[in-house]
Amino acid sequence: MKRSRRVRDHLLVGLTAMAVVVILGMLALILFDVVRGGLGRLSWRFLTAAPEQGMTEGGIFPAIYGTAIMTLLMTVAVMPVGVTTAVYLHEYAPPGSKLAALVRIAVNNLAGVPSIVFGLFGLGFLVQFVGGGMDRLFNGGELRWGQPALIWASLTLAVLTLPVVIVSTEEALRAVPKDHRMASLALGATKSQTLWRVVLPGALPGILTGAVLAVSRGAGEVAPILFTGAAYYLPDLPHGLSGQFMHLGYHIYVLATQSPDVDATLPLLYSTVLVLLMLTFTLNLTAVAIRARTRRRAGAAAH
Amino acid sequence: MVSYTGLSPAVTITVEPARARKRQRREKLVSALVTLVGLSGIAAVVLIFVFVGKEALPLFTDAATHAEAGLDKMFWPQIVRAGKPAVFMWQPVSTVPKISMVPLFLGTLKITAVAMLLAVPFGVAAAVWVSEFAPRRLQEIIKPVIELLAGIPSVVLGFFALVVLATTLQDTLGFTYRLNAFLAGVGLALAITPVIFTVTEDALAAVPRSYREGSLALGATRLETALRVVLPAAAPGVLAAVVLGLGRAIGETMIVLMASGNAALVSPGIGDSARSLSATIAAEMGEVVVGSTHYRLLFFIGVELFLVTFVLNSVASAWVRRLMRRVSGAGVPQ
């Protein structure tokens, strides 16, 4: 091989490697900065106390609580629907089904809808149409459900995370060997019995991965909850489903952009970012770990 | 009497007719229910389009609203002050509302262009290295780590751009304004680089090994193989990655809202403050009167974003399908 050719090759390969270094470097920079800035104020009190003195003192417990309860409701709403949709696509739809193809296209496009449009949907459909309709029907027109609330924010995020759950579950179903289904059917089990007793238990780790990824995504999204339920400051924890709630991501947004005294709130802001980042990273790493474990197990079973 | 006969004539499972009928009915019911819930994806997309569209519709159907905010006012230069030339201006809250969407489109375009110019080279180059040159062990570490970057909430990236990058970039590049289109573009690039990387890497990995072996056997170097054989073969997938990144960039809200400065200017400079379509919705929806023309305009922006990303997504998935046809058509034994 000519020497110049080799030099050129090394140079260009080095350049592509540089791209990886830069990307990883940015990630490291973000992590380093957030940890350095946020660790100082992080304490048990910070996690368990309410904000005090115009957000310059105290903690972020209501925001953590609000985020947790919202994602919990979201998960309860999205999992049955998402898993069933994946079951339809992978187990029940006849091969070459036009309807299944249409569902796939829809799910694919749903994943690409901007998060702020989900916010508009939550406001137009859930808050005003469903909530307003409930008020007219059950509440004599008095305003209770027809305003931004915990339940509407949770449901908005449930719609947003639907594709995450569907895609992960379908992948998990694909990983369950056909033989298991055949064996179950051959033993006289019906299709639904096979699904319930054989296929779903086999796919459980993958389904869990989907749930974890959905929670991670849902906990971090702010745009969809801007006008469907998040509030900047509430002295009390939300009362019931129709109350507004504080949220970590929204808290970061407001503290970063609308704080009257940026320098005074900056340490708290950093710590809040650190908490949110740790939360999403832990969730994502959990998903990676579950996936790696099932892959190892599947590999072991194949030998 | 229903009987199932297996391969061996000796094995015959019998089920009583009443129970069998009941079982069959239950199976049909389950199947119908699963199919019904399976339509949720379609229902979600349709509901989003219908209910976002419904709130914007009076702009075109209601005479008074239409007179106040017609398409000409949104997209054609308007005379705001007598004697002055016609301009594009977004000032929806004012005694005489100015509702030109041109500054918002321009802002979105500028920020997205910066983001794409950064994210595409980095994302694609990184994918090429990881897929074609990285040792296997490293490959298995780098991929999840970059996915971790994709998992950072956009509000955190917005915070990082606003608090850390803004000052650094202003000092090094000498911007007049701390928050500007370039900064928002850089923040956005952080969000979409992992998307472009992951989809490109998948596309490169889908190219059959035989392509590489053939090229290497003909005397090409590994780099020549990567750039002239693998990358062209994976081209539809790489294009899909770029289009998906573009869709994400256009729709992304929090980073832009926090880092762009949000001034709806008509200026070509990337050092100037800019306001994007998505950030406009986020910033203004909170204070708008429900049912007002301004409210409807914000929903109309939502419809525009929905349609643009819908088209981009459809293009991307069509290209992914083309890639899959292409590489599976090669007929390589697994």
Break the fold down into its secondary structure elements and pairings:
The complex is a heterodimer of chains A (303) and B (334).
Chain A: H1 3-39, H2 44-48, E1 51-52, E2 57-58, H3 61-92, H4 98-112, H5 115-138, H6 150-175, H7 178-186, H8 191-220, H9 248-258, H10 262-302
Antiparallel strand pairs in A: 1-2
Helix pairs in contact in A: 1-10, 3-6, 3-8, 4-6, 5-6, 6-8, 7-8, 8-10, 9-10
Chain B: E1 2-5, E2 12-15, H1 17-38, H2 40-56, H3 58-61, H4 63-68, H5 71-75, E3 90-91, E4 98-99, H6 102-133, H7 136-150, H8 154-173, H9 181-206, H10 209-217, H11 222-233, H12 235-251, H13 254-259, H14 277-284, H15 293-329
Antiparallel strand pairs in B: 1-2, 3-4
Helix pairs in contact in B: 2-15, 6-9, 6-12, 7-9, 8-9, 9-12, 10-11, 12-15, 14-15
Please name the defining characteristics of this protein.
heterodimer; A: 303 residues; mainly alpha; MetI-like fold; two-stranded antiparallel sheet; 76% helix; globular; B: 334 residues
Order of helices and strands of chain A: HHEEHHHHHHHH
Count of alpha/pi helices of chain B: 15
How many distinct folded domains of chain A?
1
Shape of chain B: flat
Task: Please state the CA-atom Rg of chain A, rounded to the nearest Å.
Answer: 24 Å
Tell me the CATH architecture of the domain at 99-329 in chain B: Orthogonal Bundle
| Helix share bin of chain A | over 70%
Unreliable segments of 5+ consecutive residues of chain A: none
Describe the sheet with the most strands of chain A.
2 strands, antiparallel
The run of helices and strands of chain B is EEHHHHHEEHHHHHHHHHH
CATH homologous superfamily annotation of chain A: MetI-like
Strand sequence of the main sheet of chain A, in spatial order?
1-2
What is the CATH-assigned architecture of chain A?
A: Orthogonal Bundle
- Describe the strand arrangement of the main beta sheet of chain B, using strand numbers: 1-2
Number of strands of chain A: 2
CATH topology of chain A: MetI-like fold
- Tell me the structural class of chain B: mainly alpha
| Biggest β-sheet description of chain B | 2 strands, antiparallel
